Every structure is written in structure tokens, then in C-alpha cells.
Amino acid sequence: MRGMTHIAVCLAASIVAAELLGYLLHRLMHSGWIPWFSTSHMKHHMVLYGPLQKQRPSTQYLDATTGEIAIGNIGLEWIIPSIVILPISVAALHLFRVSLTDQAISIGTILLWSFLMFSYLHDRMHIKNFWMGRAPILSHWFVRARRLHDIHHHALNNDGFMDKNFGIGFFAFDRLFGTLAYDSSGFNHLGYAAAQERFRNLHGGTPGSWDAKSAPHQLVTKIGLFEGVLGLVRPRKARKRKDFR
């Protein structure tokens, strides 16, 4: 019994560590601190599943790593930090005299949980009619988590960065660090224009030119932008059940 309790504690601690690392890495990608990481990740956010696009346009996932170096559909913006974090984690466990068995359990759990949450589950949130949305036990959790992830794609700050809901299946660290948003407020057109300018090279075009050609759902009119600048448009009241499909 003591051995099972020890394993359970090790698994739980490893899952918490995986959630924290995934949250921090995802937040880093949206911070602009390392421009290449942000640009690579924003192909997913600005080209394939943009703030004004449908989040589930197809029964197939639109992969941002197509034509890029990747492991499956995990891009370099995830792989490179993982390669750095992994030996640091092993060294830390060794420093604290954690047994080799516990090290194997911890590292294996962190890798597996990270893949399940930030790759498998994330991708399925963008697939139309995915079975978890209908499963009797899982549907409530999945639909709620998917909606919070939709808000992550929709919420922009004035600098053009998405700054809410960095978790995927669970949002404890969003709550802890003040980045949790339950509702989608009126769309930030100025923030979207800033994102278009910041990530214009994703389409190799000039600022504001690519979206009307390659992503028609993302078109922002000049009238809307001028109204936003002049403060003539009041933010729309938050709608708790906005459909992002």
C-alpha cells in the first residue's frame, strides 16, 4: 500500500509539473520575448485558426507544421525548449537524490501528459464533431475546456498578443497567474490590427494585406479601425455562449 501511495504521489507531482511547464512555455510563445517562437506559433493563431475564423472548420486538423521540421505535428517552438528543459529536469531530480525509478516515472509522466494535453487534446479541440464532445462522462469537461481555448484564440491585447487561457485541458495556473478568462468580450480590432502588423511575414505580404486574400474570415474594415481609434464604438457586451465553430 505504501508503494502504491508513493507512486500515486509521484504521478500527481509530475502531472502538476507538466501543467506548469506547458503553461509557461505556451505563455512564452505569446509573449514576444523570443520573436522566432512567437512567429512560429502564430501561424496556428493567425493563418489557420485566426481570431475571426471558425475554430472547427473541418473534421480534419489544419496542421501548422506542414512543410516544416517537426515530430509529427509538434513544431520546433515546442521541441527546442523541451530539449533544453529535459536535461535540466533530470539534473534537478538527481540533485535531490531521487531514485532512478522515480526519475523514470516522473520524466515519462511529464512527457506523456504534455503530449496528451498540448498536442493530442489541443488538436482535437479544433476538429468538428469530435467524439469527446458527445461522450457521457467527458463531454462537460471537454466542451468547457474547448470553450476556454476558443477564448484564448479570440482574446487579443492592444499589443497584438493573445494573453488569456494558456492551459489546454486544465486551467489552474491560469487562475493562479491571473490569465483566466471565462467569457469573450467585444473583439479588440486595434489589437488584431497590431497582430497583423507584428506577424505580417507569415504570409510574406505587407501589413494588413494578407488576411483578405488568404483568410477571408479575418477581414477587418478600415471603418471599424477608425471607429475604434476614435472611441466611437462601444465594446459589445460579453456573450457567455458565443459560438466559435
Task: Report what the structure shows.
There is one protein chain. The protein has helices at 2-29, 35-48, 76-95, 100-124, 139-154, 172-177, 189-198, 210-214, 222-230; strands at residues 70-71, 74-75. The protein has 245 residues and is mostly helical. The protein has one domain (2-230). Strands 1-2 form a two-stranded antiparallel sheet. α1 packs across α4 (100-124). The longest helix is centred in the first third of the chain and has 28 residues, at 2-29. Residues 205-240 have low confidence and may be disordered.
Q: Give the low-confidence spans.
A: 205-240
Q: What is the 3D form?
A: globular
Count of helix runs? 9
Strand fraction? under 5%
Distance between the termini: 47 Å
State the helical fraction: 40-55%
**What can be said about the biggest beta sheet?**
2 strands, antiparallel
* Overall mean pLDDT: 84
User: Going across the major beta sheet, what is the strand order?
Assistant: 1-2
Class based on secondary structure composition and strand pairing: mainly alpha
